[in-house]
């Protein structure tokens, strides 16, 4: 049986196609419509997915009318889901159950605590589940308006960023701030994991301080610290009520790589599906309907450019220009460019950062991430675990050798690669290592500023025209 999973009508629409546990396709609407965080599935995305098979059933990622009840409670006048594909039988799962299924059924665990934390689904905002064999059972929930995600998003808006989209910028800014300056004020908004000052859905409306430029960074630092404290307390609680050592962490909050690192102090094993936010829930809904573990290999599940990994071209480009653009094979499912739609660069000079920034034209305070050979990772970064999907920020142990990928607080958001996970990218790193003694490259997303990741052949032409820079393909 072929199942199509759909997530749409909120931010980050996506579809996934599975057949008997095999993931045939998973892709984001925004990569086809070129509208960032696009709410709706589009024909081009559906057509791309249907090349791999036609679905017998559709699984939808949340309960539309349960969601409607919460939206009306929150003051919305009316809301109707809009569906494009209406003629195939459709079954809906609860928003947090789709997150839980996406995480647990792509993990290698048959016994785990599953924690889902986001802004809000229908009503649930934070849930704990027990995963055993093929069964996922809810153990705890917090409901709207108490919400980790809404707290974080409200402060994202307060410091002048776009909520539901630019939370990662707040996280990056935190490294430049003094977390003590506003700690008490921010902590008062969220003093315990199940207690908040008021509903943050409409933002922070009683912040007294005049916001100077440095205040934005100090507030960001305090918000990140309060979030990390509440998250850690909540994870202790989740572990206690389930008595499990394997953690599956899902929901948009699982994208907070600085906070994620600290969870290794609590759990023996951790799995965060590389697309833990709502965009990953189309796969979650499909997995929920299938009801068993999926055959998870890697996140390269989207549009196929069909070419072989251009190892030699990349190495030549790095030698010549120190920076290369790569677009090849299948697109990443998830927000991170993990080698198939990436800009790769030599990380050994600080000035490389400025050069990549000239191309990307983004805020100078935002860090660039490294990709490192897994076998060398612990010598270059303070980590005793792997991070194949760039989900953890860890201390860089040789910041003077690779300054281009170190953040202001001395950490790096690491992607580890071994020869099985991505043979082409591993070979690039290995060749670079043999020539330079450095098994690390800078890796950042390949996109035209303000647009989603490069997806197809047409995007490649547009990118090359815009930046007058060739792409290895
Ligand atoms: Fe969610």
Topology:
Elements: E1 2-7, E2 14-19, E3 22-28, H1 30-33, H2 43-50, E4 57-60, H3 64-73, E5 90-92, H4 95-104, E6 111-117, E7 124-132, E8 135-143, H5 148-158, H6 167-173, H7 183-189, H8 213-242, E9 246-250, H9 257-262, E10 269-271, H10 281-290, E11 300-304, H11 311-321, E12 323-327, E13 330-332, E14 341-345, H12 351-360, E15 369-373, H13 377-380, E16 392-395, E17 411-417, H14 423-436, E18 440-445, H15 457-467, E19 471-472
Parallel strand pairs: 1-4, 4-5, 6-9, 9-10, 12-19, 15-17
Antiparallel strand pairs: 1-2, 2-3, 6-7, 7-8, 11-13, 12-14, 14-18, 15-18, 16-17
Helix pairs in contact: 4-10, 5-8, 7-8, 11-14
The protein binds fe (ii) ion.
Describe the structure.
The structure is a single chain. With 473 residues, this protein is of the alpha/beta class. It has 15 helices and 19 strands. It has helices at residues 30-33, 43-50, 64-73, 95-104, 148-158, 167-173, 183-189, 213-242, 257-262, 281-290, 311-321, 351-360, 377-380, 423-436, 457-467; strands spanning 2-7, 14-19, 22-28, 57-60, 90-92, 111-117, 124-132, 135-143, 246-250, 269-271, 300-304, 323-327, 330-332, 341-345, 369-373, 392-395, 411-417, 440-445, 471-472. Helix 5 runs antiparallel to helix 8. The chain starts with a strand and ends with a strand. The model has no long low-confidence stretch (mean pLDDT 93). Bound molecules: fe (ii) ion.
């Amino acid at each position: 049986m072929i199942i199509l999973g759909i997530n749409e009508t909120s931010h980050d629409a996506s579809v996934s196609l599975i057949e008997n546990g095999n993931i045939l396709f998973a892709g984001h609407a925004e990569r086809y419509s070129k509208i960032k965080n696009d709410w709706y599935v589009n024909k081009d995305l559906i057509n791309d997915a249907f090349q791999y098979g036609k679905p017998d059933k559709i699984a939808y990622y949340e309960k539309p009318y349960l969601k409607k009840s919460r939206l009306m409670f929150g003051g919305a006048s009316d809301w109707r889901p809009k569906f494009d594909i209406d003629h195939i039988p459709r079954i809906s799962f609860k928003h947090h159950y789709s997150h839980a299924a996406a995480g647990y059924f792509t993990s290698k665990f048959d016994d785990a605590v599953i924690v889902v934390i986001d802004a809000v689904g229908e009503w649930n905002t934070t849930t704990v589940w027990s995963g055993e064999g093929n069964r996922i059972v809810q153990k705890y929930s917090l409901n709207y308006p108490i919400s980790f995600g809404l707290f974080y998003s409200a402060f994202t808006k307060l410091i002048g960023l776009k909520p539901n989209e630019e939370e990662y910028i707040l996280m990056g800014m935190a490294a430049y701030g003094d977390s003590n300056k506003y700690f008490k004020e921010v902590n008062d908004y969220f003093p315990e994991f199940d207690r908040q000052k008021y509903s943050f859905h409409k933002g922070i409306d009683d912040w007294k301080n005049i916001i100077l430029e440095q205040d934005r960074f100090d507030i960001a630092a305090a918000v990140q610290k309060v979030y990390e404290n509440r998250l850690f307390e909540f994870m202790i609680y989740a572990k206690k009520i389930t008595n499990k050592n394997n953690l599956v962490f899902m929901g948009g909050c699982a994208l907070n790589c600085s906070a994620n690192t600290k969870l290794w102090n609590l759990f023996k094993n951790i799995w965060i599906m590389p697309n833990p936010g709502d965009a990953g829930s189309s796969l979650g809904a499909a997995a929920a309907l299938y009801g068993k573990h999926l055959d998870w290999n890697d996140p390269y599940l989207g549009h196929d450019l069909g070419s072989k990994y251009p190892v030699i071209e990349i190495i030549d480009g790095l030698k010549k220009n120190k920076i290369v653009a790569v677009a090849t094979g299948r697109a990443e499912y998830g927000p991170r460019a993990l080698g198939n739609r990436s800009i790769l660069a030599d990380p050994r000079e600080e000035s490389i950062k400025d050069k990549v920034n000239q191309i990307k034209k983004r805020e100078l305070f935002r860090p660039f991430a490294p990709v490192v050979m897994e076998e060398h990772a612990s010598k270059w970064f303070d980590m005793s675990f792997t991070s194949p999907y760039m989900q953890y920020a860890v201390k860089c142990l040789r910041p003077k050798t690779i300054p281009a990928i170190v953040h202001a607080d001395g950490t790096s958001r690491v992607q580890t690669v071994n020869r099985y996970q991505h043979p082409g990218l591993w070979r690039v790193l290995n060749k670079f290592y043999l020539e330079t003694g450095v098994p690390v490259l800078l890796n950042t997303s390949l996109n035209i500023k303000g647009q989603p990741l490069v997806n197809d052949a047409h995007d490649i032409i547009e990118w090359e025209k815009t930046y007058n820079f060739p792409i290895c393909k």
